[in-house]
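User: Hey, quick favor. My workstation is busy. Could you predict this chain's structure for me?
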Amino acid sequence: MDTPSRASDIGLTKGHGPHEHVFEVQATDGAARAGVLRTARGEIRTPVFMPVGTKATVKTLHPDEVRDLGAQILLGNTYHLYFRPGDELIRDLGGLHRFMGWQLPILTDSGGFQVFSLRDTIARVDDDGVTFRSVYDGAVARFTPELSARIQANLGSDIAMCLDQVPAADVTRRRLEEAVRRTTAWAERQRHAPRADGQLRFGITQGGVDRELRRRSTEEIAALDFDGNAIGGLAIGEERTAMFETTDWATALMPADKPRYFMGIGDPEGILEVIEAGVDMFDCVLPTRTARTGSALTRSGRINLRNARFARDERPLDEACDCPACTRFTRAYIRHLVNQNELLGLRLLSLHNLRFLTELTRGAREAIGRGGFAGYKRDILERLTWADS
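Assistant: No problem, here it is.
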């Protein structure tokens, strides 16, 4: 077994401009595009869904299982890993990949979303950073762009996100404008902070659904010339139609030669909508969180296995699926596991839901390559009722 590398073995480089030839668009179909993102730990075929491993694990699943489902990259959470078990401990044990036994690429968020979504814990936000209380023990903590960069460098992720200020969906325009200004200033500072060797860095835009502010944020972040650009501050409670409309025109403002990342979307309709707008990457806890409620994502909509109608149902969750749950077990059996709170039920539903979304995304990528994305999207949405049945 390999011995953990020392802290000094995880190299750091000063912040600098983008790496060369990070992203290549290989096919387009309207605004939708298929490409390849090159990272220190391998190539990622886009569009790509990123399963969320908040605390260095995709809940209930072994890393090899997640890989075998088709996942190409995972998302780790800077906020939670900073507090438990600590980024320096992870660094000393060889970095996040070795720590969690995952050898493919990892993207780490900045911690900003967690800080600002836990608004009751915030003590002060100023131009230097944000002071808040830890969700674990209530201790006062502070995040700055430089600290976020340092944590992610210690974790050794392949893609590190800039710290941003995430305003609530119903915030006043004055506060929204303040968040845009502060997000750009923080990104400028983090751009020059040290990063791990080979680590890419993405900027994040804000602005809600406000056209002027979203445009301003997109242009300012693009001008900083990061390795990639993310759409932040959406999918946080705003009206869904407005979210899609904003994504459509805001994505078109982003550099075409760099990857585009929509933060926090994972339902089938949402995935297909943002792909159609030209987004390359997206993540969400939805597949595993839905599994923990006893529900499965299928090609004919979401099904709630707690429903009594499945008590004698001998069909697989989805007859077109080749995941470990569908190739061996019935709906009736999985319903029994769920209703008895057996962990295997949660595992099987998590395996299935993640496979469903990786296959949905793979199918979209293939459809773009053959110029048939519009038909692919239409066929999928016609079958999906996206309602409990």
